[in-house]
Each structure stands twice: as C-alpha cells, then as structure tokens.
Amino acid sequence: MQVNERHIAVWNNCLQIIANNIDPQQFDTWFKPIRPVSLVESKLTVEVPSEFFREYVEDAFLPLLKSTLRRAIGADAQLAYMVRPVRNQQAMVYPAAVSNTPVNPTVSISTYHPSEHPSPFVFPGTQRVRINPRLKAEYCFENLVAGECNKMGITAGESIAMAPGKTPFNPLFIFAGPGLGKTHLIQAIGNEIKQKYPELVVLYVTGNEFKTQYMDAAMGNKLTDFLAYYMRIDVLLVDDIQDLQGQGSQNAFFNVFNHLHQSGKQLIFTSDRAPVDLQNFEERLLSRFKWGLSVELSRPDFATRLSMLRSRSFREGVPVSDEVLTYLATRIKSNFRELEGALISLTAHATLAHKEITVELAESITDKIIGEEQNDISIDRIIHVVCDYFNITRDDMLSKSRKRPIVQARQIAMYECRNLIQNCSLSTIGSELGGKDHATVLHACSTVQDLMATDRAFRQYVDDIEDMLLVAVQR
After folding, report:
1. Res 88: pLDDT
2. How far apart (Å, rounded) are the C-alpha atoms in residues 469 and 382?
C-alpha cells in the first residue's frame, strides 16, 4: 500500500468499527460525509462539512471516536478536523478532543509533612508532579479577530509570547466587560508561549479557583504545598481576578506574585474592571497590578464585528450572504459572544431545518437572543437625554468648556453611566464623554453624590433624568 493512501485505509477501518456500533441512519448522517485527508505518524486529519458538524460529532460520539482511533492507529492516536471551505479561502484546522492538549514538563516541588516532633534542620521532601496548563487549543492568535478594540492587547500579548518575563509588560492586566475576548486573549498568549517554549510551565486558573484552592489547602494544613506548587510556575495566567476575594487568599497570592515577579516569571491577569475600580482588594496588591501594562478591550466597531462574523461563518462551513452578516453586525453591537451566539443559531437552523439564511430569519433569531436592543441604556442614550433635559448640544457636552451648567450636565451624565450601565469601565465613560480620564470620572461621580445629599434641586435633576432613562427601557 502506498503511503499517501494509508489514511484512506485507516479511516475506512474506523468507519467499519463505527458502523457496527451506531444506528445506520446516524452513521449515514454524521460519518459518511467525513473525508480522510492525511495521516502523519499517529495524527489522522479528516475533513468535515462545517464547524457545527464537527461540534455535534464530538459531543455525540466522543467515547466511540476515542476507542476506535486507538484500535485503528494505536495508543498515541490523534485526530484533527479540517473544516471544508465554502469560499476561496484556506481551510482552518482544529485539534480534536481526542488529541493531545498542551502539556507542561514534570516539575519537582517541595512538600511539607508535619510530624510529632518537627525539626528546623529537616528539609521538606521533594515530589515530582505534572501541572496541567488547562489551555484550550482553539484559543489561539490565529482564531482571534483583530481590530481597534483589541489591537493593543494582541500586540502586547505577541510581544510577551516572544520573551515571557523579559518585557516591560509584567504583569499584563487586561480588563473589559463580558464577551469582549479576555479569556481568548489570555489563553492565546499561553498557547503561543507553550508552542515557542515547551519547557516552560504555564498555568491558567480563574480568581475563584485560586481562592477555592487556597481555602482547601488552609483547611487541610497544606499551605506550604500550595505555595510551593504555585511558585514553580513560569507563566501564571489568572482570569477574572476580581473574584479573588478574602484576606487569606489575597495574602497567599501576594506572596506568589512577589516570588514569581522577582524570579523573572510572567504574570497575566484579566478582570471585568480596571485596577483602580477593583473593590475589596489590598492596596499592596492593587499597586502591583499597576506595575506593568494595563490594557482595556473595548466594544468592537462595525468593521471588526463584520470581520469576526465572516471568519466565524467560514469556520461553520455554511454560506452566509454579506447582507445577512451586515445586518447582524449592525444590530448586535455589545460584544463578540452575542455575535457568535446569533450566528451559530442561524447556522443551526440552516443545517438542521434546511432553511435558507435570510435577513428575515436573522431578524427573528436576534429578537429572541437579544430582544429590542434599541431601548437598552447606553452612553449615547444617556448623553442624548441629559442634553435634552438641560437644553444643551452634544458638542457642548463633549467640549472642554468649564461653564458651570455644562460641567454639571457632563458630571451627571458620567454619574448615570456608572450607575445604570453594567460592566462599563471608568475609562470607557471618560473616553466617550470628551476624552476624560478615569480620575475625572471618579471625581464627577463623587461630586454628584455630594450635591444630591445637600442640594434638593440638584437631586431632582438627577432623579428626573434617571426616570426618563428607565421609562424608555421599560416601554
């Protein structure tokens, strides 16, 4: 048998095994359309019609796939998917759940075993452990759509991946609202580092997971082991660090931070708010979060949203017209997650119900997912209402004018933005309201609160504006 035909024979062997273990209709629907592409060592690459098709096959048949591949290829069997192109573009390759994920080398950590008569001259024992990096292979730079909203974060991340721990960006602090790509970016950096430096120990955890691990260690008298474990990490990625609450866990993290930073290790954090806005954090930790580079991921503009939808529709393998993609990019402005959700729902309808994807179908899907978005409170809506209330123009509001009525109107707008818009950072508010910094926004909010407590007329202004905004949403 020729080498270039071996993948066909192996896949046919797999199909025979699968056909004997599932319903014939399921086999015809989900396995006959799959085509073998190549077999390199123990890695079999197959082509599937769409990304939705790939996800369904793995969700429904993963145990059968694993056992079949091991039987046909061996214990080291790996599977990769190639999504069939729908346009003149190169197919994208995705690692399968049965393939190997990034791994760390085995490391040695000191362990402490308390005895009845501990001696200060007895050193702790040494244990060799394997630390799972907990990275998802699909979260890579290649699958990350770049735009003005995340350009600085991607550039900083790529620089760190080239020389982890040796750039001024240590720590890197990434903050943004939900669905704007924080987790994808932080894991993309980790995956790139593992590819370039496989000998480094990389670990991804969430702030809540670190806190839970600390509490378990404290209750089990294993704090020494806990700290020794984290102090062997070369690249520590902490997602949603705002959840790291509690004096004990913050004190432990402070010690880990100091040890890793002083040892030239790389630290990367994400949060749903800027360091200055974090609540219930020790000041010494907050000051360390500001040592390196803080980067905000903002809402994607229209061009980035459209580019993301085109990329994702290609990955799904279902042709979607530019008219439909433009409609989605125009309608859904908040984040990438809602964009992906709407597009996946559309492709699911097309694949399972054999419907054509039209603007009308897209409209019905988005109405169910996000509702009537035009009534949501936004910075633009707040600016419009405040300007109407005080009879000033938008240009006045966004100008550098220091006239008292305009300054007060601007401060009220900043106050309402912070109170009524979830996960909107001070930096974003300041940027949208005349290019102010976060300190100006904080001062404005404090001033409005003070005036509301001492000036009845001023309080009435704020209450009137808030009522106008909330009534518009409830309609």
Report:
1. 39
2. 7
Q: Could you give the CA distance from residue 108 to residue 104 in angstroms, rounded to a whole number?
A: 12
447 vs 382: CA distance, rounded Å: 18
**If we measure between CA atoms, which residue out of 21, 93, 84, 91 comes closest to residue 53?**
84
Give CA–CA dist 416/437, Å, rounded: 17
DSSP H stretches of helix in 106-243: 151-162, 182-196, 207-219, 223-230
Backbone phi, then psi, for 387, in 5-degree steps? -65, -45
Neighbours of 60 (CB within 10 A): 13
CA distance 187 to 101: 13
Signed CA dihedral, 176, 401, 384, 394: sign only = negative
Q: Read off the tokens for 258.
A: 């100091």
Q: For the chain, which domains are there?
A: 3-95 (3.30.300.180), 125-296 (3.40.50.300), 302-371 (1.10.8.60), 379-474 (1.10.1750.10)
Q: What are phi and psi of 79, to 5 degrees?
A: -130, 135
Averaged pLDDT in 10-residue chunks for the chain of 475 residues: 72 90 83 90 86 76 86 87 56 47 65 42 49 87 85 92 92 89 94 93 93 88 86 93 90 93 95 86 91 87 84 74 85 81 81 76 74 64 92 90 92 89 79 86 88 83 85 54
Amino acid 109: pLDDT: 57
- 114-132: string of b/e by CB count within 10 Å (b at 16+)? eeeeeeeeeeeeeeeeebe
Unique residue bearing structure tokens 């009308």: 360
- 278 exposed, middle or buried (CB, 10 Å; 0-12, 13-18, 19+)? middle
C-alpha 313/C-alpha 319 separation (Å) is 7
